[in-house]
């Protein structure tokens, strides 16, 4: 995967469609803030490079990257095969999930199954999915994410405990589901 996608350094992974509410710009702003402090991180993004609700959004995203000279820091892969996405996720430093809203985050579920650390926005569904096992930032503050990323890299942010493995989570869900009908 490293050769296929030209990913040669440790990286954070953001696996969302490029829809405005998925909040990519906030993450890019955080990368810029860190760069201004002399902290250089790599961010690899996968997902459809268009937003049918906001047709100009992807151009705004690309322009932001170019205008802020972040082309070497941020890699936007577009849609990639599912197996590649999971492989990139499994080998990243941490998964970033910055969404402002969604019904349920499959990215978080994938990352949990792969036992990957997750930096997520404080949006309620993320807290429901991650509970005390996520690292959180304000979805409206790139500074909040930049601070979290810096702490994650320098070790000052305490890493959460691992997630239950997939089989344990399925068994727990089954027990809770059965208990509903008792």
Automatic annotation (TrEMBL):
<dbReference type="GO" id="GO:0016757">
    <property type="term" value="F:glycosyltransferase activity"/>
</dbReference>
<dbReference type="InterPro" id="IPR001296">
    <property type="entry name" value="Glyco_trans_1"/>
</dbReference>
<dbReference type="Pfam" id="PF00534">
    <property type="entry name" value="Glycos_transf_1"/>
</dbReference>
<protein>
    <recommendedName>
        <fullName>Glycosyl transferase family 1 domain-containing protein</fullName>
    </recommendedName>
</protein>
<feature type="domain" description="Glycosyl transferase family 1">
    <location>
        <begin position="6"/>
        <end position="156"/>
    </location>
</feature>
